[in-house]
Amino acid sequence: MNKSAIIIGVITLVLFGACRDYESVAYTQPVEVEKYDGTFLEYLSDEASHLFNQKYDSMLVIINAVPGLKEQLEKDDEYFTVFAVPNECFEYSFDQLNTYREQKKQGKALFLKELLIEPFDVEIEIPNKDDPENPIIEIRHYDYRACVDTLLCRYIFTGKYDTKKIIEAQESLSLESYKYKYQMNVSCTRQTASGIVGEGVRSFTLSDMNNSQLKDLWKSTNVVWHDIYTRNAVIHLLTNQHNFGYDKFINYFKDYGNEKK
């Protein structure tokens, strides 16, 4: 796919430390940053077009694994806002999950493909006080793939929310996640750049509101590059220091393999 950049101002990248930590990036980003001649799924697949040499394979694996999700995201009549999550963010979350499972003796280390299995039911015997010889049979339904989908969709929103629109909305917007309508918040503050008041972006965050209006309870992560315009979405790139799923990942998957206990 072809990529074209519209330059208004000078892009300056200064990388400090290891290549992995691109949250430590100082840049003056153009007001209109980048246009990509393709869909946002094609952008995520097109490694040659990625800034900071990041890859987004994990996002694509989930999108391809969840029934119907890829087709929904390829619709011509919908426009999206996507916060691209680098592979490292998934690795970080799985490292934390597997450390927890090892400490709690919950079983083997897990990988993404194991969470994308088909839904299943488990029969649990519950003691029956009234009839001890005939325990109560409870059927529990497990759908780990849907849990992964729920978390992924918190980085996808219907509609166009670029930095201009967010700043015009008094620099903060509460948005409903794609499909599941989970409340997230986007916040974008501006700074003076090149002597022009109001130009430039000082900070841009995506926050899990944790079902609360109290900001002290929110979990936030930084955007390191914003406003990549594709044919069907505007993409913002998240730092590779982000923990995919914020603080929800361990709780969702810690008991994998122990459903009958």
Automatic annotation (TrEMBL):
It comes from the Bacteria. PROSITE patterns: PROKAR_LIPOPROTEIN (PS51257). InterPro entries: FAS1_dom_sf. Gene3D superfamilies: FAS1 domain. This is Uncharacterized protein. It comes from Bacteroides ovatus.
